[in-house]
Amino acid sequence: MRHLSPSLAAAAPREASPPRAARALSPITGAGPQIPSVAMAARSQAWQFAAALVFFHGSEYVLAAAFHGRRNVTATSLLISKQYVLAMSFAMLEHLTEALLFPELKEYWFVSHVGILMVIIGEVIRKLAVVTAGRSFTHVIRIHYEDQHKLITNGVYRFMRHPGYSGFLIWAVGTQVMLCNPVSTVAFILVLWRFFSKRIPYP
């Protein structure tokens, strides 16, 4: 076996070791698959969407029970219909499809945070409307006068005519902005605007 002399060993080229920063950023062997940041963004948005749905509908039911009594509260107070379930299912399908095919679309954190802000603002406006109106606020249109019904002009009703509808519109569209769903955002705006334009002038 040949041995290099000290002078030749010193002159022999050595393999450059990676910089310390590069070693720190390199994947750790045996640490398992690394989760891409895009996947984390989409997952975070999905959890935020689920939390927004649970809080909105749960609080609607609780407030309805508080003002109208549990005996007078039905599943309708959750504001969940077949059309609503279909719309939200389409929104989740769009989010999943885009997260898989166009993951960069879910990386617009500024847009997502604007959506979160819209969700909060819409929620606050909606709940202020419910609390201010009290027993006069119902989830079903009444065509006959009832004793507890009265015209509300104080609180949030001083600044907008239909804060309940406005709050829901902002909240619903905000959920889609939060998910960075371009198709559902436009669809929600058009459908809800058409729905409320027909519902508001209801005789």
Question: What can be said about this structure in brief?
Answer:
One of its GO terms (biological process) is methylation. The chain is an all-alpha fold and 203 residues long. Helix content is 61%, strand content 0%.
What report would you give on this structure?
- The protein is mainly α and 203 residues long.
- The protein has one domain: Four Helix Bundle (Hemerythrin (Met), subunit A).
- 61% of the residues lie in helices and 0% in strands.
- The protein has 7 helices and no strands.
- α3 runs antiparallel to α4.
Structure keywords:
7 helices; mainly alpha; Four Helix Bundle (Hemerythrin (Met), subunit A); transferase; transmembrane; 61% helix; 203 residues
| Morphology call | elongated
The parts where pLDDT drops under 50 for at least 5 residues are: 21-30
Biggest sheet details: none
Q: Can you count the helices?
A: 7
Quickly give the CATH architecture: Up-down Bundle
Order of helices and strands: HHHHHHH
Rg over C-alpha atoms, rounded to the nearest angstrom:
28 Å
Mean pLDDT: 82
How many distinct domains? 1
Number of strands: 0
Distance between the termini: 103 Å
**CATH class designation:** Mainly Alpha
Range of helix content: 55-70%
- The helix-and-strand class reads mainly alpha
CATH topology-level fold name: Four Helix Bundle (Hemerythrin (Met), subunit A)
Strand content: under 5%
Subcellular location: Endoplasmic reticulum membrane; Membrane
Cofactor: Zn(2+)
Keywords: Endoplasmic reticulum, Membrane, Methyltransferase, S-adenosyl-L-methionine, Transferase, Transmembrane, Transmembrane helix
Organism: Oryza meyeriana var. granulata
